[in-house]
Each structure stands twice: as C-alpha cells, then as structure tokens.
Fold this protein.
Amino acid sequence: MNMVVLSEDYTKGYVSGFIDADGSFSVSIKVQRDVRYGVRIDPVFSVTQRNREVLEFLRRVLGCGRIIKKPGQENLWLYIVDRVEELNGKLLRFLEDGCRLIVKDKQLKLFTEIVKGLIEKRHYSYEGIKKLVHLSYELSSLGGKAVRRRSLNEVLTIIEGYEMRRRDAPGER
C-alpha cells in the first residue's frame, strides 16, 4: 500500500471525518437463553467501501478490527470492530482524544454509553440491562434504516420473564 506519512492532527481529522460520513454505530439485541436476562447486547462499529485500501488505513490508525468481503455484495469490503474491549480501548479512545463528529455525534454518545455499560458489567443487573436495551433502541432510531426484529416491549418482556424466574428460584429471595 502506497502511504503518505500524515501529521497526527491531519490523520485524526481525516479518520474522524471519514467515520462521521461513512461509519456505522449499531447494537444488536440477540435472544440467547444461556445469558442472565435472556438477551445479549452486541455493539458493532463498521464501515463499508469499495476501496479496501481506505479500510486498511482505518484499521492501521485505529489499531483494531478486521476487514472482510461484505456478505452478499462481493464488490464491497467491510471494516468491522465488534470486540467490546477493542471498541472501548481503541476506537472510542481514539474518538475521545480530540476528535469531533458532527453528523453522528448523538450516535457516538449513545454507543459510548452502551459500550462503557458493558465494560462496567451493568448488563448483569436487571435495571442495567433494561437501560442498555433502551439506549440501543434509541441509537437505532437515529439511523433511519434500522429495522428491529423485535419491538422494545418484546425484548423488555423477555428480560422481565428471566428476572421473575430468577427471583422465584430457590435461594434467590
């Protein structure tokens, strides 16, 4: 890859502008029976491009993530960061360090709160997981394209069911 050496400020500005224009902050809510409240919260940052070279630059600057062919669209590449530790320790740290998003500022704030909540294990408490689910639905409402398989009320009902069973279990009172 033919790379020009760029100043740190220029690189930060370029990457944050690129993220603001083409980045996607999303959170999947997956029903999963073997987790405490029956749902798993999976945050993902991604960028889709025809040009893999740009994504390689992003990956090198951010120091995390992976690049794959976009499933079903073989002419596109997908840069993905989906490990909570990398989201928190690399991507969000980069964006918190003097970068400013304009278009996606609200999405970034919600996404950051969700990732930090997972790092702090807030999803291990009944109130904490409900809060993170609410934030996830708020985030998806800002994107305009997201369609959730389950309504917010359906997910909260699943969580409530697991909480009721946990409270009723012997030794849990």
Notes: The mean pLDDT is 91.
